[in-house]
Amino acid sequence: MNNEATTTETNTEVGGLVEPLVMPDIGTVTGQQVKEAMIANDITYVDHHECGICGVMVHYFRDGEFLYFDPRCGCGCGGMPQEREFEDAARWINMQDKPEIKAKLARRFGIEA
Ligand SMILES: [Zn+2]
């Protein structure tokens, strides 16, 4: 990552219409939606976050109709993989305040706005 300033985004007027810069709010997603989107898009691995100590990405993974969270990283502070409900992933998406973050996260699971 670099911190170099990016160009300032401005709304572009096209024929009197202002193009929205923010992504549309995808609304509330359900566990069922997450499950179906992952299966339909053959998504078996979803990044969650990097361990703050060793930097290894901990993640969700799907095996058939089951979702697991794998907290294992390089420094062994996370424990063993655990089965999770698809609702847990949906809750993680739904709790995001910023629509663009929410949409980005949903996309990781195969859900498009
Ligand atoms: Zn670690």
Write the layout of secondary structure elements.
Layout: E1 13-14, E2 17-18, H1 31-40, E3 45-50, E4 57-63, E5 66-70, E6 82-84, H2 86-94, H3 99-108
Antiparallel strand pairs: 1-2, 3-4, 4-5, 5-6
This protein binds zinc ion.
The site of zinc ion has 8 residues, from loops.
Describe this structure in words.
By secondary structure, this protein is of the alpha+beta class. 26% of the residues lie in helices and 22% in strands. The strands form two sheets. Strands 3-4-5-6 form a four-stranded antiparallel β-sheet. β4 and β5 form a beta hairpin. α1 (31-40) crosses α2 (86-94). Mean pLDDT is 85; it is low at 5-14. The protein binds zinc ion (ZN).
In short:
With 113 residues, this protein is an alpha+beta fold. The chain has helices at residues 31-40, 86-94, 99-108; strands spanning 13-14, 17-18, 45-50, 57-63, 66-70, 82-84.
Please state the average pLDDT score.
Answer: 85
Structural class: alpha+beta
Sheet with the most strands: spatial strand order = 3-4-5-6
| Helix count, DSSP H or I runs of 4 or more residues | 3
What attributes characterize this protein structure?
113 residues, alpha+beta, four-stranded antiparallel beta sheet, two-stranded antiparallel ribbon, 3 helices, 22% strand, globular, binds zinc ion
